[in-house]
Amino acid sequence: MRREVGWAAERARELLASEALTAILIDSTQSQKQNSPSLSGEIISGFIQAIESEIPIAYVRPICWDEAYLEQVTIRIEDIPANSRVFDTVSAARDWLCDATGCKAAPI
């Protein structure tokens, strides 16, 4: 998982450099649960910090996380900028990103 997150962050930075991105939506709904909430929080924090941008970033949590796991992950996420949020659904994340960027999203 860390390797894929690293590749995703690198690709996002490339697109940001070419001014091809105005927001990022990370859809992790089908991802597997990590070994611990600490690891999940570290992966999320690492990706968002690696982007090094003020563009809005929406993270959609895996559906396999129960509320207790989500709470533990949230506690462990470090230094998340105000332009980033965690969501339960893709549609909620998309709506927030559209509000944040003034865009009109294509229907899913």
Written description of the protein model:
The protein is mostly helical. The protein has helices at residues 2-17, 37-51, 67-76, 90-101; strands at residues 24-27, 57-60, 84-87. The protein has one domain: 3-Layer(aba) Sandwich (Rossmann fold). The chain has 4 helices and 3 strands. Strand 2 (57-60), helix 3 (67-76) and strand 3 (84-87) form a beta-alpha-beta unit. Helix 1 packs parallel to helix 2 (37-51) and helix 2 packs across helix 3 (67-76). The relative contact order is 0.19. The mean pLDDT is 83.
Features:
108 residues, mainly alpha, Rossmann fold, three-stranded parallel beta sheet, 4 helices, 11% strand, globular
Could you estimate the helical fraction of the residues in percent? 40-55%
Question: Class, according to the CATH hierarchy?
Answer: Alpha Beta
The main β sheet shows up as: 3 strands, parallel
**How many E strands?**
3
Return Rg in Å.
Answer: 13 Å
Shape: globular
What is the CATH topology?
A: Rossmann fold
How much is the average pLDDT? 83
SSE string, helix = H, strand = E?
A: HEHEHEH
Structural class: mainly alpha
Uncertain runs are none
Please outline what is shown here.
The chain has helices spanning 2-17, 37-51, 67-76, 90-101; strands at 24-27, 57-60, 84-87. The chain has 108 residues and is mainly alpha-helical.
Q: What does the secondary structure layout of this molecule look like, with pairings?
A:
Elements: H1 2-17, E1 24-27, H2 37-51, E2 57-60, H3 67-76, E3 84-87, H4 90-101
Parallel strand pairs: 1-2, 2-3
Helix pairs in contact: 1-2, 2-3
